[in-house]
Specification:
Strand content: under 5%
Number of helices: 7
Radius of gyration: 16 Å
Shape: globular
Distance between the termini: 40 Å
Helix content: over 70%
Length: about 160
């Protein structure tokens, strides 16, 4: 196991077993979400926003995965998944900001944040996938195939 993974595992175990650490982690996430919300409304149309887009994908990606696991196929899960795909498309298109997406991204980030707070243990388990997507955006390697498509919902419908 790499030292970094070991460190993250130790941190996750500590957070899970310590209510003060849980409260601090939730406070930090709320602060992070406020910062994102402010930044998205300050950006101008076409402004380069790779770092912010990577952060947004991380947050919404976590929320989308939590929703997919806790309430698959629900309108909330579909909205988060759809917004994640929109954010990935922004990255694919060169990370130029689109002002028209600020409000929907804000709403999706808030919904994702609520899910992160409600399902903190599940969120921690999903962090490596969110880190992967964020890193691929930072490295300009992201592709739409990195995110599941509508076939996810078709499988759910057939299973029902």
């Amino acid at each position: 196991m790499s030292p970094r993974k070991h460190h993250n595992t130790d941190r996750h175990a500590m957070i899970k077993s310590n209510p003060i650490a849980v409260a601090m982690a939730k406070h930090k996430m709320r602060s992070h979400l406020r910062t994102i919300s402010i930044e998205i409304f300050l950006l101008q149309e076409g402004e380069f926003a790779k770092g912010l887009i990577a952060h947004i994908a991380w947050v919404i990606g976590l929320g989308a995965e939590i929703a997919a696991q806790t309430s698959p196929g629900t309108p909330e899960a579909k909205r988060l998944h759809s917004m994640l795909r929109n954010v990935v498309q922004l990255a694919i298109d060169g990370c130029a900001w689109r002002v028209a997406l600020a409000e929907p991204i804000h709403q999706a980030s808030q919904a994702a944040g609520d899910l992160l707070m409600k399902h903190a243990d599940l969120a921690m388990a999903c962090v490596p996938d969110a880190d992967h997507i964020s890193r691929r955006i930072d490295n300009a390697e992201i592709q739409m195939s990195d995110i599941a498509g509508a076939e996810v919902y078709q499988r759910l419908e057939h299973a029902a």
